[in-house]
């Protein structure tokens, strides 16, 4: 059954992939929201609009009471598109499966707000959680694609600012190399049903905006000093052009003495976890991610329900 499910998801993504050629920002954003709209959101959560730091955020909580601790979630979309709404299937499933509350941040997007605007916003959100009295050992960063990359660069920014680091990082198919130097950018071209080198370079150029991509905040998989980083879980599929972003980040973390789990699933696409309820591997991966997060939260006492 799983093989059939993977084939169906692959076919669906190939059908939804736009014709080659640069698209307007408006078309890219609308297409992605339409792609993510049917994804399954658990019925056992509740959401509310709020503010965290300098930006709007979506507060996501379990219906049946929550345990102490907070997931700070960063949505994907190449730093150009996506929203807390487009990532709700992922955020909601992590909340439902862990019992933790989450904030999904609506950070500024390129090209209107290129690098480092997104990192400024995610750091501001993390600082707001700390200023509200939350213990860093009860905060975890999570995100998919570009948001997975932001879990790492926000950690780098927090360390540079002298802030304590969160308890853990969870990355779903992270984007970690703005220079696009991974071999999988070429070896997985055509195998990846949704992302191409051309599409990544198109949106990536909007975010980098002419700056040198060879710097830790843009290409952490190859340049970041990960000394002292919290434990990280990296989940990725073998059919991704971004596969080597994950494998190189894991190797770099391991070399820096960081606890790291590199969780590779065969024959699944970029951010396959979003297909919960459709793809068995998605549900299994989310269960592993939830277990990882639950094991890393060390908070005691009552849960915080507001911040910012």
Helices and strands, with pairings:
Blueprint: H1 2-16, H2 25-36, E1 45-52, E2 55-62, E3 70-74, H3 88-98, E4 101-105, H4 117-131, E5 139-144, H5 146-160, E6 168-172, H6 184-187, H7 197-208, H8 220-223, E7 232-237, H9 243-255, E8 260-265, H10 280-296
Parallel strand pairs: 3-4, 3-5, 5-6, 6-7, 7-8
Antiparallel strand pairs: 1-2, 2-4
Helix pairs in contact: 3-10, 4-5
Q: Please report the total strand number as a whole number.
A: 8
Structural class: alpha/beta
The CATH first-level class comes to Alpha Beta
Measured by DSSP, the beta-strand proportion falls in 15-25%
Q: Could you please say which CATH topology applies here?
A: Rossmann fold
Kindly report the name of the CATH homologous superfamily: Alpha/Beta hydrolase fold, catalytic domain
| Alpha plus pi helix count | 10
Q: Unreliable segments (pLDDT under 50, ≥5 consecutive)?
A: 299-308
Mean pLDDT over all positions: 94
Tell me the count of domains: 1
CATH structural architecture? 3-Layer(aba) Sandwich
Helix content: 25-40%
Could you spell the SSE succession in H and E letters?
HHEEEHEHEHEHHHEHEH
Radius of gyration, taken over Cα atoms and rounded to an integer in Å: 18 Å
Lateral arrangement of strands in the main beta sheet: 1-2-4-3-5-6-7-8
What general form does the structure show?
globular
Described by strand count, sense and barrel closure, the largest sheet is: 8 strands, mixed
- Tell me the span between the first and last alpha carbons: 45 Å
């Amino acid at each position: 059954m799983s093989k059939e499910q993977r084939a169906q998801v692959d076919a669906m993504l190939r059908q939804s992939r736009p014709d080659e050629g640069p698209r307007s920002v408006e078309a890219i954003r609308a297409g992605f929201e339409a792609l993510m709209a049917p994804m399954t959101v658990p019925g056992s959560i509740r959401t509310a609009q709020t503010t965290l730091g300098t930006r709007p955020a979506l507060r996501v909580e379990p219906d049946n009471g929550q345990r102490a601790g907070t997931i700070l979630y960063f949505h994907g979309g190449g730093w150009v598109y996506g929203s807390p709404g487009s990532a709700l299937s992922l955020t909601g499933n992590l909340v439902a499966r862990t019992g933790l509350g989450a904030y999904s941040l609506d950070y500024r997007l390129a090209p209107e707000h290129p690098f480092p605007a997104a990192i400024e916003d995610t750091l501001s959100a993390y600082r707001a959680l700390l200023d509200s009295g939350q213990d860093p050992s009860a905060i975890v960063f999570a995100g998919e694609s570009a948001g997975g990359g932001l879990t790492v660069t926000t950690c780098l920014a927090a360390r540079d600012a002298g802030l304590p680091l969160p308890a853990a990082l969870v990355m779903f198919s992270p984007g970690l190399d703005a220079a696009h130097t991974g071999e999988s950018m070429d070896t997985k071209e055509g195998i990846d049903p949704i992302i191409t080198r051309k599409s990544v370079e198109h949106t990536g150029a909007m975010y980098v905006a002419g700056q040198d991509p060879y710097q830790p905040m843009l290409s952490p998989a190859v340049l970041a000093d990960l000394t002292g980083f919290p434990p990280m879980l990296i989940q990725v599929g073998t059919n991704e052009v971004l596969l080597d972003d994950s494998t190189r980040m894991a190797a770099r973390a391991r070399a820096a003495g960081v606890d790291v789990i590199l969780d590779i699933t065969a024959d699944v696409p970029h951010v396959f976890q979003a297909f919960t309820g459709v793809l068995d591997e998605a549900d299994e991966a989310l269960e592993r991610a939830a277990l990882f997060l639950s094991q890393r939260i060390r908070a005691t006492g009552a849960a915080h329900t507001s911040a910012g």
